[in-house]
Amino acid sequence: MARPSDAAKDRELIRILTENARLPLSDIAKSLGVSRATVQGRLARLERDGVIAGYTTILGKASRPVTTISALILIELEVRQQGSVVAALKKRPEIVQCHTLSGHFDLSVKIECETASDLDTMIDWIAEMEGVRRTTSSVILARKFER
Q: pLDDT tens digits, residue range 35-75?
């Protein structure tokens, strides 16, 4: 079992990787005040234990069309319809995130479209899906930060 200082080092390692997963291990080791081998071992353990499930690329504004418009859609489902609705949502490339929720709404999806008209079409498509009871939409105005 990890000592408290080990858990704190693991949390700091995860924080550093969250900010920039491409940092060289030697730079991470220097930040943590440990050896490169220690960082490599901790990283291997965190991956093996499933704490770190993978690494990803977050696209910057330059990669997206200037006219991209995004929205969050909250979806209330009919009973036992989550599987089929999520499967249908997953097939649409405009839907970039989908989360299950507790509370009144069952799902939250993030949509990215090139135009407001495309966004409107996607919102209508979701609202008309079999198994969707109702939706509510909020257009995203600005991203303040993203981790």
A: 999 999 999 999 999 999 888 777 666 665 555 899 999 99
Mean pLDDT, residues 28-39 taken together: 92
Put simply, whether the predicted model's pTM sits higher than 0.85 gets the answer no
Q: Of 93, 94, 84, which Cα lies nearest the Cα of 115? A: 94
Tell me the two tokens of residue 32: 């943590």
Residues in the chain: 147
Alpha helices for the chain (secondary structure H): 4-19, 25-32, 36-48, 82-90, 116-127
CA diameter of the chain: 56
CB 75 within 8 A of CB 130: no
Q: Check if the beta carbon of residue 90 is closer than 8 Å to that of residue 98.
A: yes
